[in-house]
Design a protein that fits this description.
Blueprint (H helix, E strand, L loop, with lengths): L5 H8 L5 E2 L3 E5 L15 H12 L11 E7 L2 E7 L4 E2 L7 H15 L3 H14 L20 E6 L2 E8 L5 H12 L4 E7 L2 H6 L5 H14 L3 H11 L5 H11 E5 L2 H11 L2 H7 L9 H11 E5 L5 E5 L6
Antiparallel strand pairs: 1-2, 2-3, 3-4, 4-5, 6-7, 6-8, 9-11, 10-11
Length: 316
């Protein structure tokens, strides 16, 4: 493994990826043994837990407190992520240098990418027999999957529940709180919300509810608003989102040609051609379509055709 800079190492930690700087290292613990991760100056209790983790054989029961990803500095583990997605700074005798990197490592693990939490939640569901709780198959493979979100209590991110939501944030928060037993929740996964859900590392419940309200108001699937939002990047305030989408949204069309036809009519080009005695075949539709869709974007709505929205930045 090539040496990383500290900045590269902290980025790797947010992906729970192996990394090595020389004095700082981090590894996934599957398949590793004690010779690979020494206990260093860990206190007795975390040292025993690390030993049990490294000695665990395939198929043996998993203690939820066992680390699944560990960061070490100068030969001592300083932070780890458990099977239940908790960030732990194990008790150890640390130097000022190690203590500084412990703080930075814990900060990176607290901001771990959502796919890492989703993987841990999926594994816990399998262990605890909840494999049928979520959408069947791979929901992210189908952008037109019925909209649902996956939530967890903030203090226990790997225990999750799926639920459909609406544009009513208060009702949605109440339903989520009934499932999780707390209103301190986090959305760790969402399907049916287009690229906003697939690209974001922080899924905001208020934004998702606003996406629903906008979709309902404009008669489009939430995935259309989510695709627009992923590229538009406006402020997350609901009123600002509503105004920005209303300004960008052009309507539903069977295909690109029908949008081109409407533009020809609305801008008076077709009337001018008729007055001049020029038939439609004189229009280079492929060039016109390419130019229009450098400023606009078409988003699939499945069998219903396309939604057209104005791009935030025109393509050159």
């Amino acid at each position: 493994m090539r040496k990383s800079t500290n900045a590269e190492a902290y980025r790797a930690m947010r992906n729970a990826a192996d990394t090595f700087t020389g004095r700082l290292s981090a590894v996934r613990l599957h398949g590793y043994r004690a010779a690979t991760i020494p206990a260093g100056t860990l206190h007795a209790k975390p040292a025993r837990l690390l030993r049990r983790t490294l000695d665990r054989t395939a198929g043996a029961p998993i203690d939820p407190d066992m680390p699944v990803y560990a960061v070490s500095c100068d030969g001592t583990p300083i932070a780890w992520l458990t099977h239940h997605a908790r960030v732990v700074t194990p008790a150890a005798d640390l130097s000022p240098f190690q203590t500084r990197h412990q703080r930075e490592s814990a900060r990176a693990l607290t901001d771990v990418h959502l796919w890492v939490i989703v993987d841990l939640a999926d594994a816990r569901d399998r262990r605890e027999g909840r494999t049928a709780d979520g959408p069947a198959g791979d929901p992210c493979a189908n952008r037109h999957h019925p909209p649902q979100i996956r939530i967890a209590a903030q203090h226990d991110l790997s225990r999750t529940w799926w639920l459909p939501i609406s544009g009513d944030r208060a009702a949605t928060l109440h339903a989520a709180g009934q499932l999780a037993g707390t209103h301190e929740i986090r959305v760790i996964q969402a399907v049916g919300y287009g690229y906003y859900a697939r690209r974001s590392n922080r899924l905001d419940l208020a934004v998702l509810c606003t996406v629903h309200r906008l979709a309902d108001a404009h008669g489009v699937p939430p995935s259309v608003v989510g695709d627009w939002l992923a590229d538009a990047e406006p402020t997350g305030q609901p009123d600002a989102l509503a105004a920005a989408f209303a300004a960008a949204y052009q309507g539903l069309y069977p295909n690109r040609d029908s949008f081109v036809d409407q533009v020809l009519t609305e801008r008076g080009w077709r009337a001018a051609m008729t007055t001049a005695g020029m038939p439609d075949r004189y229009v280079d539709r492929s060039t016109l379509s390419a130019d229009l869709f450098s400023a606009y974007r078409d988003i699939s709505v499945g069998a219903g055709g396309i939604a057209v929205v104005r791009r935030t930045r025109a393509r050159g």
